[in-house]
Amino acid sequence: MKNLIYIAFMLLCAQSYAGVAVIVHPSNASSFDDSTIKRIFTGKEKSFSNGNKAIPIGQEAGSAATEEFNSKVLNKSSAQLKAYWSKLIFTGKGTPPKEASNDAEVLQTVSGNPDTIGFVSSSAVTGDVKVVKEF
């Protein structure tokens, strides 16, 4: 019994430290750094370095991938991000990224549209997308 509790604890810890991968369509040859990704997902950058429009796809608030992304990439809590977007929406200066319900939906959207960029749990990545950065 003690071993089962230990194993369950280790699995939970491993999941909480799972990374998040920023993904694009395989045909997207743009360059990406932390700043570019942050600017795209905060509405400050509207296109990729190749000139194509950038369409960011997020995940629902509260998902593990979203919490990880917000913390590691955007350096904001969910509450801070909600306040940020509320202000931009109210002033008509921006709209938040579209939201998918899970990793699978983000993978499907990004693999089907060369102008999208999204994030998923690193463990969910498939060969249908290209990982441009892992956090």
Automatic annotation (TrEMBL):
Residues 1-18 form the signal peptide. Gene3D superfamilies: Periplasmic binding protein-like II (3.40.190.10). Keywords: Signal. It comes from the Bacteria. This is Phosphate ABC transporter substrate-binding protein.
